[in-house]
Amino acid sequence: MRSLRQRLPLSLQFAALALAYMIAAVAFTLLLSRWLRNPWLAGGIVTVVLLPLLVYHVRRAFAPMNSLFRALSGTVASYRDGDFAFGLSWHGGGDLGALVASHNELGDALREQRQALVQRELLLDTMVQNTPVAMLLVDPSRHIVLGNIAARKLLGEGKRLEGLTFDALLEHAPEALREAFERGGDGMFTVGDADNEDIYHLARRHFRLNGRRHELVLLRLLTAELRRQEVQTWKKVIRVISHELNNSLAPIASLAHSGAELLRRGQLERLPTALATIEDRARHLEGFIRDYARFAKLPSPRLESIPWPRFVAQLRSQVEFTYDGPESPDAIARIDVAQLEQALINLLKNAHESGSKAGDVALSLRRLPEYWRVDVLDRGSGMNEAVLANALLPFYSTKRHGTGLGLALAREIAEAHGGRIALLNRDGGGLCVSLVLPA
Question: Where is the Histidine kinase domain positioned along the sequence (predicted)?
């Protein structure tokens, strides 16, 4: 009913116009018929005279609506072109008034969204251009489409890089950077000599932009950060070593003094106990120093091919665990046998020391498309979030007499093989230490 009432004035207008023309046509036809004495001729004359007038008045009545429709069509075309800086005015009511109001609301919403996008783009561009991380965006044809200020300073002597080919840019880049790209993936490299060197981290990510595959290259200067971390690490190493040395040397010195007193007094029956304790503390100190030396001097892995079943058999001769994995000799590993054996023995011993039953300590081996996944599983107490976050760091340990090197050494070995290591708590309790190694 509301819509009908809104259309009623316009309908009455056209009805009145039509009625007026009908009355005028009948009246003129009667008058001309009396004068000409020919009704058909009179009707033809009236039609010829009144029809153009009727067309004129109809077009004049529809002119505002036609103008409005043209304006609506123009605004739609402008919206399509991204221009939202205008609105429409319509003084009438009804459906056309509601249409114009909705159209103006749409324009306001699009304009506000456009302004918000522009502001975000300005903020993002400011952040990208002024970040200390050198950023390059490379298109599928290997041309640079974006290089921020840090990238210009590092690779282009401050000049714009857009439009240059990435390969041509690499030709003039430091050799260490070229080698890092040739290795593929993420990594670290050093530029400069021993007296003046900078350490960078290279990260490469691929994504699709406008349906085309692009590459984002990030070069982050780590020299200052690594120097700070190096100092903190050395301080921690010194604290740990000092603590271990004091824990061993203090009782050794005390027992040596006590042994001398026992010898002086002739109480030789107690002397073997003192000497055994001195030997025990000396061997503990020897093992502690040996572990640190092994971690500090880990050589590059010497890869060799070995069937996984044979490697697992060697491992089971040294530590107890259950095995879930391939038994076929065709399952070949490319590893440094001694290093990986050392890493897994440490992990399996940790699993036995976690409070897990011996039968619940397991080693699982799975073949992934390009990797082998080795999981060491237990049903111990697991780790809380704080321990999980720090367990792989060197010198971090929750054990009373732990060196904090077992997991760190396993991580070093896995990464030296081109793999990685991860820790996660298992459903139902226990821990999973997962090594992923290239196949």
Answer: 240-439
